[in-house]
Amino acid sequence: MTTAIYPGSFDPVTMGHLDIIRRSARIFSHVYVAVAQNPHKKPDFSLEQRRDYLLKVTRDLDNVEVITIDGLLVEAAQKRNARIIIKGLRAMTDFEYEFQMALMNKKLGNDVETLFMATSTKYSFLSSSLVKEVARLGGCIDGLVPEEVREDILAQLRR
Ligand SMILES: Nc1ncnc2c1ncn2[C@@H]1O[C@H](COP(=O)(O)OP(=O)(O)OP(=O)(O)O)[C@@H](O)[C@H]1O
Ligand SMILES: [Mg+2]
């Protein structure tokens, strides 16, 4: 019985995120999807919106729980008995930063391990930033974000 935590800004959730969530839910007994306030990022979607979209798209996954966190990820993990942090890896460009974060988190909480999950090939080009850019320019985001939240995302970005 292992509990894992998958953190991100999810601004907004993409099919790449959902893919990592679904695959993690098959491996771990419980998965917290943690919507984080990243101090380096100014989000386009509010914390509540980001959480609500995730709730909608993970409704069918019984062992997935969406939470919001601020403060240290390691502390949020320890508080919930999550011993695994899941990070998705798309390309080498993700690696350097995530590797540094993994080592720092290990230093902060030796009992919490970071595991990297490779992207599915079909989502390897996908990021929230790119989805937002395409949507704002009037491009089609079908298949890039979960169907249930696509219209809400488009409405918010094209306001
Ligand atoms: N397409 C994807 N495939 C696999 N992992 C992904 C994908 N997109 C994001 N991730 C992973 O999901 C986690 C949360 O990412 P984050 O919220 O930064 O999303 P993002 O798509 O990278 O958004 P942004 O463009 O705002 O950085 C990170 O571990 C990230 O590596
Ligand atoms: Mg990112």
Task: Write up this protein.
The mean pLDDT is about 95. With about 160 residues, the chain is of the alpha/beta class. The protein is built from six helices and five strands; from the N terminus they run βαβαβαβαβαα. It has a single domain, classed as Rossmann fold (3-Layer(aba) Sandwich). Helix content is about 45%, strand content about 20%. The radius of gyration is 15 Å and the shape is globular. The protein has a five-stranded parallel sheet, sandwiched between helices.
What are the main properties of this structure?
19% strand; globular; binds magnesium ion; 5 strands; 6 helices; alpha/beta; five-stranded parallel sheet; 159 residues; binds adenosine-5'-triphosphate; Rossmann fold
**Order of H and E elements:** EHEHEHEHEHH
- Assign the CATH architecture: 3-Layer(aba) Sandwich
What percent of the residues sit in helical stretches (DSSP H or I)? Answer: 40-55%
Q: Any idea what the CATH superfamily is called?
A: HUPs
What does the largest sheet look like?
A: 5 strands, parallel
Strand order of the largest sheet: 3-2-1-4-5
Q: How many domains is the backbone divided into?
A: 1
Q: How many runs of DSSP E, i.e. beta strands?
A: 5
Bound molecules: adenosine-5'-triphosphate, magnesium ion
Span between N and C termini? Answer: 45 Å
Number of helices: 6
Assign the CATH topology.
Rossmann fold
Q: Over all CA atoms, what is the radius of gyration? A: 15 Å
* Average pLDDT figure: 96
Query: Low-confidence parts lasting 5 or more residues at pLDDT below 50?
Result: none
The CATH C-level name is Alpha Beta
Coarse structural class: alpha/beta
As a percent range, the share of strand residues is 15-25%
The dominant shape is: globular
